Amino acid sequence: MFRSLLIANRGEIACRIIRTARRLGLRTIAVYSDADADALHVRAADIAFPLGPAPAEESYLNIERILSAAKRSGAEAIHPGYGFLSENADFADACAQAGLNFVGPPAEAIRAMGLKDEAKRRMEAAGVPVVPGYHAADFDPETLRQTAEEIGYPIVVKAVAGGGGKGMRRVDHARELDTAIAAAAREAESSFGNSGVMIEKWITRPRHIEVQVFADAAGDVIHLFERDCSIQRRHQKVLEEAPAPGISEALRNRLGETAVRAVRAIDYRGAGTIEFILDASVSIDEAKFYFMEMNTRLQVEHPVTEAITGTDLVEWQLRVAAGEPLPSQQSDLTIKGHSIEVRLYAEDPSRDYLPQTGQLIRFSPPDENAMVRVETGVTEGDVVTPFYDPMMAKLIVHETDRPRAIERLQEALSSFEVAGVTSNLALLHAISETPAFAAGDVQTAFLEEHLAEGAVALSSPPLQAIALLVAATLTDRSAQALCSSGEDPWSPWNATDSFRLNEDGVDRFHWRFGEEKIEVTVHSNRSATTLEWDERASVLHRIQRQGDTVSAVIDGVMLKAKVIFHADHAYLIRGPSTLCFTALDDQTVGDDAGATAGAIRAPLPGLVTAVLVSDGDRVKAGQTLLRMEAMKMEHTLKAQVDGQIGELNTEVGAQVDEGSILLVVQ
């Protein structure tokens, strides 16, 4: 075994690799961009080296700088993690030429499976079933169109390189094909430096089933059973579980045997994943499955496989990379219980899963134990930047069976607290509570069928939430007054309960919740507090505050929540739900000047990649005006109203802040 390991990655996967490497006695070396100088993976490593500016192209994707850090640090091996350079054959070659042990497959294997079209041609030759489509080596738009007509719509346009759902578009009609090809090619070029695309038949009701495989230098190949990764948004995974629900033992064996056959078709070494698409439109006994792609690296969802097999796949990677044989044979492996993983993203599910940025005012995962595991690369106070993938953490549970695992997941999600950045935490909890999920009825359109966009978002807060916010505000104001006065806290002159000698005290609070402005009138006396809001009223008794937790008897029911005040924001946390309120001053309350109907604002910090209109142009509602790139995803901004471009404030190449007005449609 080598003695020192450089992790050419960041975030939770870097922390994950460091943990196993340290247990094995290896010296751990981190690398970081300017944006990650204080990141958790930097603090966790034995030593860390800077790579340069925040953009990945200038840091985590810069092979020369990473190899320079390896040379300076004396590293003997490099683990690429996943994403970034993990499936870059040139990087694997460069490591070998520099005398470094690359913890991954040979460069030739990465090249063989790195392009989806080439991989599918190889799999067809090896007798592995593939989805009907156009996988030829040449990129011919006319042939793509002809093939689409032959196999029939709907079809899917896919980037031939990369993964993670980037460069992928579903097409339902021939008239949409050219636009989809162009958009997929742009996103693929931006993400992977390769604009090539292919097309495949869209499986109407697909399940995404993948098999974990491992091979050593001696040519031994095994599989570690399957995972179901069907619950996705934007073609990216949200929830994974192992084993796949409802899969028969016979089908499990066929999946495993086919995956091993696929790996034997190339000279492979290390961890990999064979991804299949399974047609769930028929009964499971009759369902066909097709090879989709191979990931020549560790997967984000590897912990669920570790949980059910009792293995450490990172340790396996390191040992195989050092020339050791596989730690186990196929006959040694059995499935123990059931494991589920969910991905916690900084994103807004009610706005088409738009990535979010900002400081984590509260980040408190559930306690870890034998059944609950948390993988994260952030801590409370860290900033989620616009430069990288918005995944903040993974929550993994393991139980004796699937129903118990679901219960454990719900319990853990309810105790996970996130504030300061909008997240998908409430959505994850909602998924865990759907009857379809409990029944194992999962497929890639699960969210669209069972949790429509905005299903877990509130356009207006519940009255109980407003009442708890009032209770917290009153106790917070009282505490501040006592701390600042330095005088007798029992003096009536220091009271902050709006007491009046002959009448109730009256307060008015103003907040913004999303797009809604909230005005609450509060009447206080010695016996109770009454609030009035939106023609509704509520009575509060026995208001108490202990730390962040506020409790009160509200309309006869004892309720509690955690309320965190930060700057002009108040975050109210109840279970997996976090509501954000912004305090308004008197001037802001009546000011609607900024609500320009035709204003096109940047949805998050990013780079303007296309401006398709000019000053004075006439446009129609729904017309594409600009395109942006943020967090390695393309965002299309469209006109909301018919009108004329009257104010164009940006240009191609501009780096813009969230909320910036890019143009106005008058």
Tell me the CATH topology of the largest domain: D-amino Acid Aminotransferase, Chain A, domain 1
Ends: how far apart?
Answer: 67 Å
Spatial order of the strands forming the largest sheet: 14-13-10-11-12-15-22-20
CATH homologous superfamily designation of the largest domain: ATP-grasp fold, B domain
What about the largest sheet? Answer: 8 strands, antiparallel
CATH architecture of the largest domain: 2-Layer Sandwich
Query: How big a fraction of the residues is strand?
Result: 25-35%
Number of separate helices: 17
Cα-atom radius of gyration = 27 Å
**Morphology call:** globular
Estimate the mean pLDDT confidence.
Answer: 90
Protein model, in words:
The chain is of the alpha+beta class and 666 residues long. It has six domains: 4-103, Rossmann fold (3-Layer(aba) Sandwich); 132-201, ATP-grasp fold, A domain (Dna Ligase, domain 1, 2-Layer Sandwich), CATH 3.30.1490.20; 205-336, 2-Layer Sandwich (D-amino Acid Aminotransferase, Chain A, domain 1); 342-433, 2-Layer Sandwich (D-amino Acid Aminotransferase, Chain A, domain 1); 463-589, 2-Layer Sandwich (Glycoprotein, Type 4 Pilin), CATH 3.30.700.40; 599-665, Beta Barrel (OB fold (Dihydrolipoamide Acetyltransferase, E2P)). The protein has 17 helices and 39 strands. The chain has an eight-stranded antiparallel β-sheet. The protein has an eight-stranded antiparallel barrel with strand order 24-25-26-27-28-29-30-31.
